[in-house]
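During the reporting period the student researcher (J.K.) took over the structure-prediction task from the postdoctoral fellow and processed the backlog of single-chain submissions. One of the processed entries is reproduced below for the supervisory committee.
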Amino acid sequence: MIDLDPRDLQQFWPRPSAPRPIVIFGAGSIVNDAHLPAYRNGAMPVAGIYDPDIGKARALADAWGVAAYGSLEEAAAVTNAVFDLATPPGQHAKVLAALPDRAFALIQKPMGSDLAQATEILKLCRRKRIAAAINFQLRFAPMSLALKDAVRKGYLGEVVDFDAWIALDTPWTLWPFLKGLPRIEIAMHSIHYLDLVRELLGDPAGIHAKSIGHPSHDVAQTRTSAILDYGTARRCSLSINHDHRFGRKFQACEFRICGTEGAAYLKLGVNLDYPRGEPDILQIFPKGGSDWIDVPLHGSWFPDAFMSRMANLQRFAAGEDAALVSSVEDAWHTMALVEAAYQSSAAPATPLAAKPQD
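J.K. obtained the following structure tokens:
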């Protein structure tokens, strides 16, 4: 029997000892709701913000007491900075090209609009020797860090099952840049889940997926079903519905993760009534245990994961962390999984057998 003390599970990334100033590209709602609060909570200084909409950048900068840059070049010229690209996927390469060689950068997911763009971003970072990570911040949520610590310590045994059940009423209008994009649900939302699955289970052999829209709106896709192929030892399935508009009672955003000797349950509260959200939940049924144990969480996915995500990049820049988590080299494989999911969704299904003739 393993005695689980939930207070011993890691929930936050170590802070950098001497954080560099952060320059943010983009002034959208995610910057105000997550990036800026997280960096303030983590005592990581923000030098300023640039956005092509100068008025929008100035308003946000004034609200947070930081500088607003008048051009991309001015923002990229800030010395000894870490660059935070909170930009739409089609703009990542333009910003990266403006950064100095050997810069340190955090890039908003996805890593481009498709795998071809992700490949170009990877090559660009290699050519300019930019140490860049993709902002797959779900890996850094307090509940995710605690879950991975529990797995490392053997509380679950070998992880063999991962179920994601999502039934939400997502306010897609908060992100106007998504309108008209051909890829939405997997590329902009479930990519987080696929990335976390990769971290826990490794790369699958393949994926079976179907992603579709809804008759009530023109967002390209808002509903996805997916099965990841891990052979005969492990099972992984995702059921995603962003159009469950029938009240909170039966809405859900949760993972059930089972091992050979224990299990875990996670509720991702931010997605329920986004962006206000609900508290995250992590419960563990440990190896040798007799009941579920609540893990008291001292933060949430939004905004605290953004603090830990940036902390890893800052510590890597300072030589305090040996590895850059979700580097562009690793994140490319998440993009390859997303690409395979879309290819699977577009492929014809196996037809049913015809009824035999008399």
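The committee noted the following: The mean pLDDT is 96.
J.K. will present the remaining backlog at the next meeting.
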